[in-house]
Amino acid sequence: MLKTRNIYIDTEIFVASNYFHNENLRRIQKFGELKTVNIFMTEITKSEIQKNIKEDITNAISEINRFRQIIANKGKVLKNVEKFKPYFELPKIELELDYSELSEKLEEFIEKAKVEFIPFELANINDVVLQYLNENPPFKKGRKKYEFPDAIVISALSLWCKKNSTEIYFISGDPDFKDIKIPGLIILSSAKILLNKINSQYSHDESEWILEIFQTHEKKIIKEIGKTFEETILDESMYEIEISNIDIKSMHLFDPSLVESNRGSGEYYFQLDFDIVFSCDIEQADYSFASYDKEDDRYYNVGKKEANYELHFTQTAEIAIEAYFEDKDEDQDIIISCRYVSIPSEYKVESHIEYNAYN
């Protein structure tokens, strides 16, 4: 249940959500638009989001341009293959135009969600400096100076809560905030936890009913997650490795969060983390007998090696359940599907393999 209707979304949530290409931000925006909750921001956080947008676009453009140059210079032979032609026709990306588009989406979010701004000037700078000197959260060794914006925001929020005799949810997945204790601030580590609290608050009986359906059909849900996980990881294009012959050994679901409740259409969406253990065949590049040509900037005589591995990861899934609250006392058909599942990155798979090889 909600302890307060006041919500503050940290920069990290926007960055981790790939900004506005994320359903949970849209869901929070809708609750703000309806004034179900009160969403707050500071100019510092807004500026940080804009700064991250620009940096991420710059880095993405740099990587794409590097790819275009590599394929244009060293992959010319692929022009003869029909399916590769689109790679040679990638359009030039304009930094300012793309930044403006995302910046406008931020302004649109602020407007539609009815975001209110808390003055960061409320912060107690003396307290912030003492936190810095004592290396108290959010300050940490090595990167202390980069935490000043966060410390100023937290101080301003805490004093705003004191001034208004209220509390505020501070939503951030930043591990530096995990155990922080600040008067007035209630730390939540993800948007899905917040959405679960909102949905449970305003449709309590309905949320308990749909959660019971989730629990009753857990075996079906595990099956759907496994199927989608396998399809997704096999479809993923990885550069150095190729995965095949997946065999899921076990799966454990963590507490689900009800992130969206549509009583009229009978659509309910849960998000949850899950542990998965699976074995698979992995084919990797073998550089044992390869040679590097500095002039061509490439390796020659790269071989292949294949082995079977057992891997263990924690991932995220979104489950859709179609059921009707009005028919809760009747024997109705329950439709369950997995809308989305995350998979480990190539880097994480390779790291996992290396770790197991030395332990």
Automatic annotation (TrEMBL):
The DUF4935 domain covers which part of the protein?
A: 7-177
Record protein name field: DUF4935 domain-containing protein
